[in-house]
Every structure is written in structure tokens, then in C-alpha cells.
Design goal:
Elements (H helix, E strand, L loop, with lengths): L8 E4 L2 E4 L6 H7 L10 H16 L4 H4 L8 H22 L8 H9 L6 H17 L5 H8 L11 E2 L10 H9 L4 H12 L3 E5 L4 E6 L16 H18 L11
Antiparallel strand pairs: 1-2, 3-5, 4-5
Length: about 260
């Protein structure tokens, strides 16, 4: 589609968005085909980034659209969330780069070569590989890293609270965003259906605790396929949700009482 750029505002699907020049430089590179990304449709991702930044940078959210008496708070909101939007897009712009994705073949070979005592790790690696076969580079690298995470723990069923466990602290924001994006249930169903083939299910609680659980192999497996007509919509919704979860992560109240 052609963007109508007037002053510092673009229009996408009838909604205001920032212009390309206002996006973080990594997204400008993506838009110009200079970044090593392999989206099936780069324009969709760039336009989503333009819309996302505008809505947080200018307070174009329901809080103000539906409560005009709070409009005096928009400048403060914009100052804070404009920064969060920039941080979010900066992170994901790089997270989509090919070199940040796991080398699934290497991971799988590494655990297969260690013998039968690592069968569970091999299963998790195969789950990751099947997820990549399903979604490829249309989902960010952190999506795959968080689903492979159990193989790097003391044992695959170890539970960790991402906000509090120092061993995963550097990933807490990005991994938690992906796990919360699982509220886009079609994507969540696909993840769990693949995991169920190997006797597993992924768990994530409100205390940001993340772990893999075993399920009954004879009755726990189920098949689920994304609707071809809705597939791209679900993927867009998943990415959008991960972005805003990443943006709001630093202001979400948390307590070890939930862990």
C-alpha cells in the first residue's frame, strides 16, 4: 500500500502512524532491504512498527480515547511509553536478524551425540525444530530460544521464575513477552500440539515462572493446525502482543509471593 506522509504522520489502514524516518535505524534498514531478515512479507512488519510506535509515542490508546478527562496525562504517558516503544522496536529489529536464531541442527546433534540419558533434551530440540519448520523467520528468534530454554537448565523440568532467577535474568523481558503473547491462542495451541507429540507441555504462570511439564503420552497428544485463512492474522497478532508485553514489562507490578 502507498503511505500518505504528511508532516510527521503517515496513514496506514486508516490509522495514524509514524513515518519511516522516525523508526529506529534498524527498522529503516529493514524497510530498505538492507537488514539480514527473512520475513515472508517485510512490508507488514515495517507497517506494524510504524503503527506501534505512533500509538505509544502519541498516546493513541483506549485509556485516552475513551476517557477524555485524562487527556492532560498524555504528555507524561507519551514521554514514558515513547521510550518503551523505541526500546521494544530496537530489540525486535535485531531479534529478527537471521544470525540471532538458534542453529537447530547443531543443537539437535549435540544432544543426540550424548546418548540416551539426554532423550528429553533431544525431544525439546525436536520441538524447537518443528516450531521453526512451522513458523520460520516470521516469528522472532526469542520465540525459539524460550522454547529451547529447558535443555539448558539443570534438567528439562526445572522451573524458573524469569523475573527473579539470576541465571535467566538477561532474557527475562524478551522471554516473558513471548510467553505472554501465548494469549493469542491459535499460536499457543500449535506450540502445545507439537510439544504434546513428545509427551510435553509448556507452562507459564503469572509469577513469570516458566517450565516444561510431562504429560501422559498415551492420551495427552493432540493435533492442531492453523487455519490457512487466518494464519497470517494470528502471526501478526502474536507479534503485536509480544511487542506490547515487552514494552510494559518494566512497569508490571511483580512479587515473589506468586512464585
Amino acid at each position: 500500500m502507498q503511505l500518505q506522509e504528511v508532516s510527521n504522520v503517515a496513514v496506514i489502514v486508516g490509522e495514524n502512524a509514524v513515518t519511516l524516518s522516525q523508526l529506529p535505524s534498524v527498522w529503516q534498514d529493514i524497510a530498505k532491504g538492507r537488514a539480514n531478515v527473512r520475513f515472508s512479507n517485510p512490508q507488514i512488519y515495517v507497517e506494524m512498527a510504524q503503527l506501534f510506535q505512533y500509538k505509544l509515542q502519541y498516546g493513541d490508546v483506549d485509556l485516552f480515547n475513551e476517557r477524555p478527562h485524562l487527556s492532560h496525562l498524555i504528555p507524561s504517558f507519551s514521554q514514558l511509553f515513547g521510550q518503551m516503544a523505541q526500546e521494544t522496536l530496537e530489540f525486535y529489529g535485531h531479534d529478527f536478524m537471521v544470525h540471532n536464531y538458534p542453529n537447530f541442527g547443531e543443537v539437535l546433534h549435540n544432544f543426540e551425540s550424548k546418548g540416551s540419558e539426554y532423550n528429553n533434551e533431544v525431544k525439546v530440540a525436536r520441538i524447537g525444530l518443528e516450531l521453526f519448520d512451522e513458523f520460520g523467520y516470521d516469528l522472532p528468534a526469542s520465540f525459539y530460544h524460550v522454547h529451547l530454554a529447558p535443555i539448558y537448565r539443570d534438567h528439562v523440568f526445572e522451573e524458573r521464575a524469569l523475573r527473579f532467577d539470576q541465571r535467566d535474568i538477561e532474557h527475562k523481558r524478551s522471554w516473558d513477552a513471548i510467553l505472554h503473547a501465548g494469549k493469542v491462542f491459535a499460536i499457543q495451541m500449535k506450540v502445545q500440539s507439537i510439544a504434546s507429540k513428545y509427551g510435553f507441555t509448556y507452562q507459564h504462570g503469572c509469577g513469570c515462572n516458566s517450565h516444561l511439564s510431562s504429560i501422559d503420552e498415551s492420551s495427552g497428544a493432540f493435533a492442531y493446525e492453523l487455519s490457512l485463512e487466518k494464519r497470517q492474522r494470528w502471526i501478526r497478532s502474536f507479534i503485536w502482543t509480544a511487542w506490547y508485553e515487552y514494552a510494559i514489562f518494566p512497569i508490571v507490578p511483580n512479587t515473589s509471593y506468586l512464585v
